[in-house]
Amino acid sequence: MRLADAVLAWFSNDLAIDLGTANTLVYLKGKGIVINEPSVVAIEKKSNKVLAVGAEAKRMLGRTPGNIVATRPMKDGVIADFEIAEKMLKHFITKAHNRSTFVRPRIVISVPSRITQVEQRAVRDSAELAGAREVYLIEQPIAAAIGAGLPIAEPAGNMVVDIGGGTTDVAVISLAGIVYSQSVKVAGDKMDEAILSYIKRKYNLYIGELVSEQIKFEIGSAYPLEERKTFVIKGRDLITGLPKTLVMDDNEVREALAEPISAIVNAIKVTLENTPPELAGDIIDRGIVLTGGGSLLRGMDIRLREETNLPIILVENPLTTVVLGTGKVLDELDLLSKVTIN
Length: 342
Fold this sequence. Notes:
Layout: H1 3-11, E1 15-19, E2 23-28, E3 32-38, E4 41-44, E5 49-53, H2 55-58, E6 68-71, E7 74-75, E8 78-79, H3 82-96, E9 106-111, H4 117-129, E10 134-139, H5 140-147, E11 158-163, E12 168-174, E13 177-184, H6 188-203, E14 205-206, H7 209-219, E15 230-237, E16 243-249, H8 250-273, H9 277-286, E17 288-291, H10 300-308, E18 312-314, H11 321-331, H12 333-339
Parallel strand pairs: 1-9, 9-10, 11-17, 17-18
Antiparallel strand pairs: 1-2, 2-3, 4-5, 4-6, 7-8, 11-12, 12-13, 14-15, 15-16
Helix pairs in contact: 3-4, 5-11, 6-7, 6-8
């Protein structure tokens, strides 16, 4: 192999990672997205051995015997369990490189805006211990804006709302930097928790988090639906302790989701209030770009349009925008130097 080819092969191992609370996506330079799996790890307690990672581990949530624990190492957009996060990253990095453990790639990881120095260190350290040669961090709203194809380097205002699993990041971007941002720990997970709590409070019925998430996907909405939707829920009656079934409709789910959705709306309004007038004018013309898995909640774009009186542009593939933007940075080294967190 010629030296130039060897160098090219070395750099083609580079990865971009959207390390999300709900899902982790990995982009391999030159190939695109190679991994899109839940951020869940199943561990055997005594030996501390990893039994499953991703989709296989998620199916175990709430269904494991006493000697196995299925856990999510990410909470509210940051690492909650350092050791398990490192194991999960190592698994995904190796899988992205076809099980090769000799590769030491450069990795760009997207993180929530307003992440603390301690949280940044935890992400960097876990990636380095998992096998990264160099680690760069990029804020999720910037990555989302790049992935959505926004002209972030221009001296003009672009506003992005990224509703993920653990956090909602709202940011106004100009000249490849964040002018003002809000990061709230309210997103998809808090919506699931709100549904679970509502059913527990109203019906004395205990359901698992996978069922709660399913209810959100099937009949959840941020704005009244044209047709009534219902869902059959199976859980455990908290009074009798016996299995029980009930039917829930979309009105009730909307009532359950009222608080987390209001928190997201409030973060957007606070950001708009703190945006310089020149950039606010640009946002009136360009609208707000909406992305992230939480943006797929039915009627979310309509609700935000009503609350802000601004155009809302829902990106084509909200679940992959952040990782695609992070991956794009791998190809443009001058852009990488502008947007990485020091």
